[in-house]
Design brief:
Helix content: 40-55%
Distance between the termini: 51 Å
Shape: globular
CATH architecture of the largest domain: 3-Layer(aba) Sandwich
CATH class of the largest domain: Alpha Beta
CATH superfamily of the largest domain: Type I PLP-dependent aspartate aminotransferase-like (Major domain)
Structural class: alpha/beta
Radius of gyration: 22 Å
Oligomer: single chain
Number of helices: 14
Number of strands: 14
Length: 397
């Protein structure tokens, strides 16, 4: 690294450090879910996206091992060359049945799906409108599209309508795409989807939703927020991940056959990415089997979320607008949030500090996420730790 570039990097890292925003990587060893080991300490995991505990499920691990022995550990090329394993077609058909849609298309990750789908749907001369609290991958997809990018106030249909009205007044003639998360990953609240569908119909806009934290977590059979609201015929583009509740890796876009064919031919992050390994696809199929055979896992996840959220609120913590398995504990100051996380670890709880730019300035928080595999004893242990730390820092009485 030359002196100029190195000095610039050091200066930027120092600025992050002074604002308590510098990040680092720490080795984590999985124990028996939902416990893990970090730097030699056994901790209760309250920071996982493995919502149903399927990432370490014996049947998922077995399916992965069998696929590795049968087909190897790498795809060897993109799907459009020689990486289109027969397992892909089985998975995409199963996912289409699961989501009650005509077709699905699997991507290598949720990030690559969003940065590949959004620019395929809109471009220069079009407008894309997104919720201000959307995930970074959605924001990057909007920017990469080169369409005009507008944000509306969080879950605020009046704000969205105002932007649409202004576009009408300006005589805008291009396509309009509205993109939103359905369960917001840092706040734990759910999109006002019926209202959003109505606004899109009123202003002739395409609607795309990101079900990353909803699929496998809410809705009948864990089919997500779209199914939760009974709007499966009203949302033309829905992205979901395989790496969260389904415990595997990758993502998929659900819609009609035309959308799938279009993305295969236009979406750059699909076309130019090496296919997922057969092991990963086999894991996703096994996880889907378990979810369909044990839909009670979804109920257990949300029951655990309600129990922990109610307990945190009773202690006096601000859990913001959370109504799901994800609950923020708003602290505000980044340094204080880091200290809160450090003290929780000393009490045996792993709950990480979330700071800008992941969340807006002055809204640093502990982001807690439960799992279906947490026992009531686990959750009571966590509540005891939160109470001790909160009182020691004068955050609660």
């Amino acid at each position: 690294m030359d002196n100029f570039a190195g000095e610039s990097m050091r200066h930027r890292l120092l600025a992050l450090q002074k604002r308590h925003l510098q990040r680092s990587l720490e080795p984590v060893t999985k124990g028996t879910e939902p416990w893990l080991e970090v730097s030699g300490h056994r901790l209760l995991n309250l920071s996982s996206n493995n919502y149903l505990g399927l990432a370490t499920h014996p049947e998922v691990k077995s399916a992965t091992a069998k696929a590795a022995l049968a087909e190897g550990c790498g795809a060897g090329s993109s799907r459009l060359i020689a990486g289109n394993s027969a397992l892909y077609h089985t998975l995409e058909e199963r996912l289409a049945q699961f989501k009650h849609v005509e077709a699905t298309l699997v991507y290598s990750s949720g990030y690559s799906a969003n940065v590949g789908v959004i620019p395929a749907l809109v471009g220069p001369g079009d407008v894309v409108l997104g919720d201000e609290l959307n995930h970074a991958s959605i924001i990057d997809g909007c920017r990469l599209s080169r369409a005009e990018f507008l944000t509306y106030s969080h879950n605020n249909m009046g704000s969205l309508k105002s932007l649409m009205t202004t576009l009408d007044q300006q005589g805008h003639k291009g396509h309009r795409l509205v993109v939103t998360d359905t369960v917001f990953s840092m706040d734990g609240d759910i999109v006002l989807l019926p209202d959003l569908v109505d606004v899109c119909r009123q202003y002739n806009a395409i609607l795309m939703v990101d079900e990353a934290h909803a699929t496998g977590c809410i809705g009948p059979g864990g089919r997500g927020a779209v199914a939760h609201f009974g709007l499966e015929k009203s949302v033309p583009v829905a992205m979901s991940t395989l790496s969260k509740a389904l415990g595997s890796f990758g993502a998929f876009v659900a819609g009609d056959v035309l959308l799938r064919e279009y993305l295969v031919n236009v979406s750059r992050s699909f076309i130019f990415t090496t296919a997922l390994p057969p092991t990963v696809i086999a894991a996703s199929l096994a996880a889907l089997d378990i979810l369909e055979q044990q839909p009670n896992l979804v109920h257990q996840l949300q029951e655990n979320g309600t129990y922990l959220r109610t307990g945190l609120q009773a202690l006096g913590f601000d859990t913001m607008a959370s109504e799901t398995h994800i609950m923020p504990i708003r602290i505000g100051d980044a340094a204080k949030t880091l200290e809160f996380s450090r003290r929780l670890r000393a009490q045996g709880v792993y709950a990480v500090a979330i700071r800008p730019p992941t969340v807006p300035p002055r809204s640093s928080r502990i982001r807690v996420s439960v799992m279906a595999t947490h026992t009531r004893k686990d959750l009571d242990f966590a509540l005891s730790a939160f109470g001790k730390v909160g009182r020691s820092m004068n955050l609660i009485l």
